[in-house]
């Protein structure tokens, strides 16, 4: 871990502590920094679906929008000032928001006749179904 990362971690911890103490400015800065940390994750996940890139010419704007939506959801489900807030939970919420964006976008494209989007959509849904079946200890046939 380099010096910059340690400083960044300490800054985030200081902001978190101040936000939990009721400092609204610290809370806003904390969430802004969280968005910056989430951007590469969201961008990477969206870029994994090539059909989304050919339809959406504004990847940066879309990625920011997805991250902002995740932050709003985090503020609702596990606000930073509450005991139940955790980075792990925040990342899970981010991933759910990204998945929803990808699936909804693929669904819209499939409805408009994009066969590639339809194939990717069914592939993702099948994978999710298999994961769910495995988590329930059912046998897939």
Label this structure with key terms:
141 residues; mainly alpha; 80% helix; globular
Could you explain the architecture of this structure?
This protein has six helices and no strands. The protein has 141 residues and is mainly alpha-helical. The protein has one domain. Helix 1 crosses helix 2.
**Which band does the percent of strand residues land in?**
under 5%
From the helix content, strand content and strand pairing, which structural class follows? mainly alpha
Provide mean pLDDT, rounded: 86
Low-confidence stretches: none
How big is the Rg?
A: 18 Å
Number of spatially distinct domains: 1
Characterize the overall form.
globular
| Gap between N and C termini | 46 Å
Helix content: over 70%
Please count the beta strands (DSSP E, at least 2 residues each): 0
- Sketch the topology as an H/E string, one letter per element: HHHHHH
Largest sheet: none
Number of helical stretches of at least 4 residues: 6
Map the helices and strands.
Blueprint: H1 3-20, H2 24-47, H3 50-55, H4 59-77, H5 87-111, H6 115-135
Helix pairs in contact: 1-2, 2-4, 2-5, 4-5, 5-6
């Amino acid at each position: 871990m380099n010096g910059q990362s340690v400083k960044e971690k300490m800054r985030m911890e200081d902001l978190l502590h101040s936000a939990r103490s009721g400092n609204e400015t610290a809370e806003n800065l904390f969430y802004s920094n969280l968005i910056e940390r989430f951007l590469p994750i969201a961008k990477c996940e969206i870029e994994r679906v090539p059909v989304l890139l050919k339809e959406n010419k504004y990847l940066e704007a879309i990625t920011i929008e997805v991250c902002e939506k995740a932050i709003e959801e985090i503020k609702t489900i596990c606000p930073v000032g509450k005991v139940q807030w955790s980075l792990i939970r925040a990342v899970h919420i981010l991933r759910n928001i990204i998945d929803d964006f990808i699936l909804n976008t693929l669904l819209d494209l499939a409805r408009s006749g994009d066969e590639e989007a339809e194939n990717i959509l069914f592939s993702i849904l099948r994978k999710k179904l298999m994961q769910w079946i495995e988590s329930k200890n059912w046998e897939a046939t």
